[in-house]
Amino acid sequence: MVTEFTPVSALIGxxxxxxxxxxxxxxxxxxxxxxxxxxxxxxxxxxxxxxxxAFIAGLVVSPLIGTLLGLRLPDPFMPxxxxxxxxxxxxxxxxxxxxxxxxxxxGVCGIARLSMRSIVATxxxxxxxxxxxxxxxxGLGV
Amino acid sequence: xxxxxxxxxxxVIFGFGLIISEMAQPAKVLNFLDLFGRWDPSLxxxxxxxxxxxxxxxxxTQRRGQPYFAPQGFWPTNNQIDAPLVVGSGLFGIGWGMIxxxxxxxxxxxxxxxxxxxxxxxxxxxxxxxHDWWRTQTSVFPSAAAPSPADG
Lengths: 142, 152
Prior knowledge:
Oligomer: heterodimer
Radius of gyration of chain A: 17 Å
Low-confidence stretches of chain B: 143-149
Helix content of chain A: 55-70%
Order of helices and strands of chain A: HHHHHH
Strand content of chain A: under 5%
Number of helices of chain A: 6
Shape of chain B: globular
Distance between the termini of chain A: 13 Å
Largest sheet of chain B: none
Mean pLDDT of chain A: 92
């Protein structure tokens, strides 16, 4: 699926993501890392689940509120293979927990406070994902 | 209560950011990752803007010292570049590159009720729970026997 380069909406959207991280930090003292917030809503993490549930609920219903404000909603492009979807989901869930964060926690919040740990994590998952896409699209001819 | 409202509002703003920047569209993410195909650099602009604003937020938070609605900040204290960080980020990168979905966009796309999306989110949640359970059972990485506060 071909997509256009959209620098203006990218900057506006990115600024909103940054604003969300800023407000969460300033108001509640928490890091806006989605994988950590989500995992904390499950049983094993224990404690302080209420604010996590509230954040996740806001995230999940945001497209509904967006519709009222006239935002164009995503129509996510997904691959045909169910096995690929399950394996990718497991890897994203397990990997973000083991690595302590995802694109938001390491890629935005961590790098924003110049954490070397987050800079290294972001470089690793970016490069790994680029290699996977390269192999999938150009290496195996699929 | 103030914390709950603030958290929910932040979740909504975060979702708006993902929708407006089109990062909730996995194809756009995959095309960013595809340097040697029809490269779409949008994601880099999203990150740059997000970093500028959240970096400012971090400076303001540090200057203030204490959050408005909490007795103290919950900042990650781990500075180690260790095996879990490297292996975990690598595994995440593989899964991310396969579909183009990371946790935030997957949750924002949930209400499309696409069966494939729902299956992805269930598998992702299962991976998280599996990890957190495994870390309570294993001593492979003894430094974090109990699930620690995540970096993010």
